[in-house]
Design brief:
InterPro entries: Histidine_triad_HIT, HIT-like, HIT-like_sf. Pfam families: HIT. GO terms for molecular function: catalytic activity. This is HIT domain-containing protein. By secondary structure, the protein is α+β, with helices and mostly antiparallel strands. The chain has a single domain, classed as HIT-like (HIT family, subunit A, 2-Layer Sandwich), CATH 3.30.428.10. 33% of the residues lie in helices and 14% in strands. The protein has 5 helices and 5 strands, in the order H-H-E-E-E-H-E-E-H-H. The protein has a 5-stranded antiparallel β-sheet. Strand 1 and strand 2 form a beta hairpin. Helix 3 packs across helix 5. The longest helix is centred in the middle third of the chain and has 22 residues. The chain is globular, with a radius of gyration of 18 Å. The N terminus is likely disordered.
């Protein structure tokens, strides 16, 4: 690797100008935010595998999971749990997959977790057929057939997930 490529992945800085997620944190790039606290943010993926596909990231730039300090890891874990609870409630389906990549298949070099809702349950309607994708990547069989996030649907979904998060936060904590 050349030195300019390595410098791009320097995880010693809090924010990186060329990091797509740092730009979202800084408010320089738009995102459909479903959860935010002082140290973390969760937003809808722009090429979702399924509706509700969400990314949870620390606001502090850290390249990979194994580089997280204990406090950031603990805070990120709490944000991840809160976000999965809200998505499960909003979609009325707690079947979620939580995934992270470290270097391998990590397209954005900033720690992030994907929360991917399960595929819809099998329909009993024999006439139900999926709508063919119009996304150029999907038509070329790239990008896992993912279509770009529709802004109107995203706003509606964000509101639903944020409402669910608020309801969960208002509920008294269960005794162990």
């Amino acid at each position: 690797m050349t030195s300019h490529t390595l410098a791009r992945f320097d995880s010693s800085r809090e924010m990186q100008e060329d990091c797509a997620f740092c730009r979202i944190v800084a408010g320089q790039s738009p995102a459909h935010v479903v959860y935010e606290d002082e140290e973390n943010v969760a937003f809808l993926d722009i090429l979702p595998l399924r509706p509700g596909h969400t990314l949870v990231i620390p606001k502090k730039h850290v390249q990979q999971l194994s580089h997280l300090d204990g406090a950031t890891a603990a805070s990120l874990s709490q944000a991840l749990v809160r976000t999965t609870q809200a998505i499960g409630r909003a979609l009325d389906d707690e079947r979620l997959q939580v995934i992270t990549n470290q270097i391998y298949a990590q397209l954005v070099p900033h720690v992030h977790f994907h929360i991917v809702p399960a595929a819809p349950r099998a329909s009993t309607d024999a006439k139900a057929t999926p709508t063919p994708s119009t996304n150029a990547l999907a038509l070329m069989r790239l990008g896992h057939g993912r279509d770009e996030l529709d802004d109107d649907e995203a706003q509606e979904l964000c509101a639903k997930i944020r409402r669910a998060a608020h309801e969960i936060a208002q509920k008294p904590a269960a005794k162990l």
